[in-house]
Description:
It is built from eight helices and six strands, in the order βααβαβααβαβααβ.
Amino acid sequence: MGAMPAAPAPRWSRYVAVGDSFTEGLWDGPEDGSAPLRGWADQLASHLSARRTAAGEPALEYANLAIRGRLVRSILDEQLPVAIELEPDLVSLVGGGNDILRPSVDVDTVAASLDHAVARLRAAGIAVLLSTGFDTGQSPLVRVTRSRVGVFNAHVWSIARRRGAYVLDVWGMRSLRDWRMWAPDRIHLTPDGHSRVSQAALVGLGLEPDQPDWDDPLAPLPPAPPLDQARANARWVREHAYPWMTRRLRRVSSGDLLTPKRPVPTPLE
């Protein structure tokens, strides 16, 4: 028998990612900053590029404009015009988490802005990957946002249907219901979490995942003693929640002085 034919190359040749810390890849790298952050979008780009080169096509060109702390309005005003100028054929437009953390957010307004942006991208012939928000039901404090996330997700699916966009469904990922997938700040993912989300992104784009077990839950651990849980919660408030609230009161963001980590589309070898 002859060799099996190579799988067809993904049709996209230039991918630009825009968004906030989730897409920037926060916590997917050494804590001492000795190596660049990676993240699910970088990994998705690597997967797409590897499939292209395996099929004899040029490597994928990739840029990542995401910056931590950005609200949807900032993403659309600052990053989206730059992304369009780079002439991609695929854009991942992922944001809203920082907006939803604010009790005063109008989710419908955020979604309307997102819808307008997706319509603009699709009119330019650009494929769009959106994302749902995470299910915060298991978080001791952040779960107060769960109803807002649910409304936002309903908008995301409606926008995708209306505009012909793809959806990365992190809300539905069983593996992310395990705290071992989450970084110490309980808002961002570990490297394993980012890796699994990159597989979910492939599925969201209608492609086969590289790892069939990408969303299998981890083997359960015995419950932690209540005193250990209380100590962990207190440490989280001291090291992560309090600094975040302090920045909010001062109206500053952890990403205020940052620039995009990969501003120009370059081939991924």
